[in-house]
Amino acid sequence: MELLFCHRWILLCFKREFPDCDALRMWESCWAHYQTDYFHLFLCLAIIAIYGEHVIEQNMNPDEMLLYFSSLSLHMSGDLVLRKARGLLHQFRKRPSIPCTLQGLCEMCGPGMWDSGHAPVVQCVGHKDTPGSCPNGGDVVSP
Predict the structure, then answer these.
(1) Using DSSP, how many helices (H) and how many strands (E) does the chain show?
(2) pTM of the full predicted structure?
(3) pLDDT tens for residues 39-51?
(4) What secondary structure does DSSP assign to 24-37, as a single string?
């Protein structure tokens, strides 16, 4: 699935998708760096989780997805998206293991974070170009 519309959301800091007061609350949530430096990705995931069922049902191509999510601008609930994003982050942090490609979401970019203790087991999801080793530092599980 191509997620070009997510790039626009992040690039424009959700300003076109939500009223100013909701967008500001989302920015503040990202700037807080609480439990992750990548909360903006959880916001995007929350929008897709809440409003993306129609995309899956209709098997939309990338252009149609872009049009669909653009049509939702200023019609989405900022409170609902924030609650969902926080819930998704909480679920992610409770996972005992994660695929190696998501390892970076557990790392904090700057010092002084309140909670940098989340350290799930990182498991390699398999890479064709480097069999037997993981370029992302995950544990390689033998079949």
Answers:
(1) 6, 2
(2) 0.81
(3) 999 999 999 999 9
(4) HHHHHHHHTT-S-S
